[in-house]
Write a structure and sequence with these properties.
This protein has 81 residues and is α+β, with helices and mostly antiparallel strands. It is 57% helix and 17% strand.
Length: 81
């Protein structure tokens, strides 16, 4: 499995945990500070997110300079299983 795909899976799992802990969206900067270690570099985080976004599993929300990730409701439903 390509490294970028593994990173995307890691990011999704981490975002799901944040959602279940009450965060509706997650600031991109938080991933670099507290996310999985392989995703703390912005380039790696962004590459992983692009894969999630391309598969309609997550979306980037922007308000001014603030950027946040949000998961698709179907992803949360899958993980509640």
């Amino acid at each position: 499995m390509p490294l970028a795909v593994r990173h995307a899976e890691m990011l999704e799992e981490w975002l799901v945990k944040q959602a279940f802990d009450g965060m509706v969206t997650v600031p991109t900067a938080l991933v670099c500070k507290m996310g999985p270690n392989p995703l703390r570099k912005a380039a790696d985080r962004d590459a992983a997110f692009e894969i999630l976004e391309a598969h309609n599993r997550a979306k980037l929300f922007t308000a001014g300079q603030k950027k946040e990730y949000g998961l698709s409701p179907k992803v949360l439903k899958e993980h509640r299983g």
